[in-house]
Structures are given as C-alpha cells and as structure tokens.
Design goal:
Structural class: alpha/beta
Helix content: 40-55%
Number of domains: 1
CATH class: Alpha Beta
Order of helices and strands: EHEHEHEHEHEEHHEHEE
Low-confidence stretches: 1-8
CATH architecture: 3-Layer(aba) Sandwich
Mean pLDDT: 96
CATH topology: Rossmann fold
Number of helices: 8
Radius of gyration: 18 Å
Largest sheet: 8 strands, mixed
Oligomer: single chain
Length: 266
C-alpha cells in the first residue's frame, strides 16, 4: 500500500481524467458538490482552468489541482501518475477516451491508433499503478468509464466497441480479483449510452452534431455524473444504462468469470 503522501497534508483527492468536457467535466462538479478535493486532467488547460473557477465559486473549500497532459501518448500516463505520488488519492476515475464511427475498412488508422492508446493502454497503465499502491486502502475506488458499447457491438463502431469491451472485461475481472484477494480497494465500471457531449463530433469528425436528430433519446453529462455518484455510493461493480430503455441500473458483473474452474492454470 502507498504510504508516502505530501508532507503536512492529510487531504484526500479524487482524480478524474478527461475532465475538460462532457462526463468528466460534469463529474468533477458533482464530486466537488460532495466536498471532494479534485485532481483534474486533460489536454486543454484553459477548459480545466474554467472548471476550477466554476468549482471555486460554488464550493470555495474544495481544492482543485490541474494537470495538463495528453494521455494518448503512453509515457504521459506514467508521468502523470508519478506527478501525483505526493497526493492521497481515495478515488481514481478513468474517464478520458473517445470514439470513432465508420466501417473498419474505411476507418482512419492514425485516429484508431490514438483511440487504442487512450481507451485501452493509458487506462490499463493508470489502473494498474493505482491498484498497486492502493490495494489495501480502505474506501479507495477505481472507476473506469466504459460504454453500453462495451457490452453490445454497435454497427459502424466496431473498433470503438472493442476498446470498451476491453474496459468492461478488464474492470469486471479486476473487481473479481480484488474481492478474491481480500483487497479493500474496489473496482467499478460505468457504462453510459448516448450522452450529449462532444463525443458525437469527435467520433464522426464533424463540427456540429445534433443528438436530437441522431438519437432522440439520450442523457446529459450531468445525468451521467449523477449515475456515476450512484455507482460510487453503492456496492455493485457495474452501473449500466440500458441501450433500449435508457434506464440506469446497478448490477453485479455481467461477464462470465471462471473462478474455481478445473480448466484453469494450476
């Protein structure tokens, strides 16, 4: 367990990656409303500064630390974590990620490479380092943001869904592993459906994106932040939006887990 924290500082912090917009931005404000000190990261320093100012105006007792970084560059995940070793981190939310719409044959390979590095590699590095340090920290939580596309393959989003299947399987498996080992840390996964953020513009490489025209039914980032807090406060591993009804539910892991199987490696 991590034991070396910032000298003279007994504060605890919640880390949120990808906090400059969308679910990450709304989640930061929701955690701040609960009195949680924050460490927010993203590529856009100006947006993070605006977030910090908004939180300071509404919740002056909450500390907001800004770390500007591009987590699609793998070594930056290691640098970010090293930069945060002085802080006592009670919750880590891996929210940074993006999508890509289009057929596999027509997809932009350079964009896909960045998506794989951010959605999978950075998340895995940061999750692993956090679990290593906070395995036995009472109350610690790791929450990874997946998607309903991490449980259902969506047409024209096959590669994106594959990255989110990884996030879902990795986090559900980690949650099982932590429980089996008697760890105090808990791992959880949030799986949104369509949410009105910048996701649509980035995934489709367009300047404007009309969620009313494209989906009709969707959640706002603020609604998803509320769902995230319900997951945080509960004892279930998965918080999932039903893609057909848009109802939110907290459940046990959905993927089969072969604990105790006679076919496991001995």
């Amino acid at each position: 367990m991590k034991e070396v924290f910032e000298i003279g500082n007994d504060k605890k912090y919640t880390v949120i990656t990808g906090a400059s917009s969308g679910i990450g931005y709304a989640a930061a404000k929701a955690f701040a409303a609960c009195g949680k000190n924050l460490i927010v990261t993203a590529r856009h320093a100006a947006r993070l500064a605006r977030l910090r100012d908004e939180i300071a105006a509404a919740h002056p007792a909450v500390e907001v630390v800004i770390k500007t970084t591009d987590l699609s560059i793998p070594e930056n995940a290691h640098r970010l974590y090293d930069d945060l070793r002085a802080y006592d981190i009670e919750t880590w939310v891996n929210n940074a990620g993006f999508g890509s719409y289009g057929s596999v044959a027509q997809q932009d390979v350079s964009k896909i490479e960045s998506m794989l590095r951010l959605n999978i590699e950075a998340l895995t590095i940061l999750s692993t380092l956090y679990v290593r340090d906070y395995h036995d920290a009472a109350g610690a939580q790791l929450i990874n943001i997946s998607s309903c596309g991490g449980y259902t393959i969506v047409p024209m989003a096959v590669t994106y869904c594959a990255t989110k299947f990884y996030v879902s399987a990795f986090t559900e498996g980690l949650a099982q592993e932590l429980t089996a080992s008697g760890a105090k840390l808990r791992a959880k996964v949030l799986a949104p459906a369509a949410t009105r953020t910048e996701f649509g513009k980035v995934a489709n490489d367009v300047e404007t994106y009309d969620y009313d025209a494209r989906f009709g039914t969707y959640h706002t980032a603020e609604q998803m932040a509320d769902f995230l807090l319900r997951l945080y406060d509960g004892d279930k591993v998965l918080g999932r939006v039903d893609r057909e009804t848009y109802e939110f539910e907290l459940t046990d892991p959905l993927f089969p887990y072969a604990a105790g199987s006679s076919r496991n490696q001995k």
